Structure formats: structure tokens, C-alpha cells
Amino acid sequence: MADGETVADEAPEELNDEQKRHRRKRLTILLIPIVGFTVAGTVINLAAPALINDHPLVVIFFNPINRYLILASTRVEAWEFFAVAFFRLILTDPLYFLLGRWYGTGALDWIENKTGNSGTIPLVKKWFAKAGPVIVFAAPNAYVCLLAGASRMNLRLFIALNVVGTLSRLVLIKVFGDVFEPIIEPVLDFVKRYQWQLVALSIAVFAIQSATNRKKGKPSELEGVGTLASELEASIEKAESKDD
Questions:
Q1: What is the share, in percent, of the chain residues with pLDDT greater than 70?
Q2: Helix/strand/coil (H/E/C) assignment for every residue in the chain
Q3: What is the dihedral of CA 100, 105, 106, 109, to 10 degrees?
Q4: Residues 6+ apart with CB under 8 A from 152
Q5: What is the pTM of this model?
Q6: If I label 49, which of 72, 83, 123, 194 is the partner at 20 to 30 A Cα–Cα?
Q7: Is the pLDDT confidence value at 146 over 70?
């Protein structure tokens, strides 16, 4: 990795009780908004069929995934879309960056365990050493922001890449929404017509997934939120013990 982009793995000194309390307090401060938006995002996802037509800004503020951004882009003024979507998308990114900067390997292990360390994560981790700035620009999601912090990326560079990359993504989404509005509008009309049936279907699917996870010994999406802090702290302590 280039200078300033190596994952922080220096062996820390063993923490005393006061330092552990300070770390726990700092973790709590970072995790409160993350947990809040995670819970809100799940709830909004379930209720989205009933909200996306009449309250699109609420949907994209609490759950700014691409499909909702595309649908909302045709329902609101351009300035409203860019203002709300941009603010929300960059709101939690610095929190993940700080988790990575302060807790390095422990924080990376935590988020990889939460996401199953599958799919694109190993690929992103492999290529970040060679193309970290490009990845932050193209896809500044939670894992990428955490990886940027853990790699000791310059804070100003991270902010610049995040801001420009997020704006570029929103411009592309807005253009896509405008071009395909004749197709998107019938979709929104269908959602509005059957909104409550779709809400019921979303809740049923969520309940089935939660029950399946419990049978496998895994917490549901909402149940797992309550253990985020303890899991993260345990992951950090485990990483520190390996370094000692």
C-alpha cells in the first residue's frame, strides 16, 4: 500500500479500566446514530410501498438505497432530491471512517462478521491497497468508509472523494430517473394502487427471514442491532489480544 493507506495494526498497550470505559463511551457515541438509522431504515423499508408516492423524501432520508432514490427522483423537485439524498448519504460515512481509524482490524473484523465476509467484501479489501481513492469515489458505503479509516487515508482526501463521488452518483440516478420516467411512473402507480398489500407482503417476508435466522441461531435484523456495541467491543479486544 502507498504511504497513508496501510491498515492500522500497531500493537496497542493493554488498556486499564479507565481507558476501557473511555473506549466504550466513544463507541457508544459513534454507534447511537448508526443503530438509529439501521432501525429506521428497516422500518421504512417495510413501509416504503405506503410512503414512496406521497412521502418520498422521508423514504430516501431513512433508507437511501438506489431503488428508492430512483423512484423518489421523479416525485420531488431536483433541489429537494439532491439536498436530502446528499445530506443523508454522507451523514454516517464519517462515523464508519472514525471506527476504522480508531479501531482498525477489530472494526474491520466486526463489520465483515456482520455481513458474512462474502460477496464483494474480499474483492474490495484486496483492491483497496491499489485503488483505495477510486473505490471511495465510486462506492463510499459503510464498509469502504471503515476500510478507508483503517487504512489511514488522509481525512481531507476521504471527505473530498466522498463528497464528489456521492454527488456524481446522485447526478447519474437523477438522469436515469428522468430518462426512464415513462417506465418508472407506471411502477409507482402500481405501488400506490396496491400499497397496503405490498406492505403486508414486505412484513411477511421479513417475518419469515427473521424466523429462519432464529432457527439457524442468528438474530434477526432488528434483534441484532441491540448487540452491535458488545460485538464490536469484543471484536476490538480480540484483535488487540492477537497483536499483544
A1: 85
A2: CCCCCCCCCCCCCCCCHHHHHHHHHHHHHHHHHHHHHHHHHHHHHHHHHHHCCCCHHHHHHHCCCHHHHHHHHCCCCHHHHHHHHHHHHHHCHHHHHHHHHHHHHHHHHHHHHHHCCCCCHHHHHHHHHHHHHHHHHHCCCHHHHHHHHHCCCCHHHHHHHHHHHHHHHHHHHHHHHHHCHHHHHHHHHHHHHCHHHHHHHHHHHHHHHHHHHHHCCCCCHHHHHCCHHHHHHHHHHHHHHHHC
A3: 100
A4: 4, 5, 6, 7, 8, 101
A5: 0.84
A6: 83
A7: yes
Q: Where are the domains of the chain?
A: 17-243
Instruction: Report pLDDT for 2.
Output: 46
Within a 10 A sphere around the Cβ of 74, how many other Cβ atoms? 18
Confidence check: pLDDT of 11 > 50: no
Rounded to the nearest integer, the mean pLDDT of the chain is 87
Which amino acid would we find at residue 96?
Y
CB-facing half-sphere around the CA of 126: CA atoms within 13 A: 7
Q: Answer for the pair 152, 179: CB distance below 8 angstroms, yes or no.
A: no
What's the distance, Cα to Cα, between the start and end of the chain in Å? Answer: 24
Position 65 pLDDT exceeds 80: yes
Answer yes or no: are the C-beta atoms of 166 and 91 closer than 8 Å. no
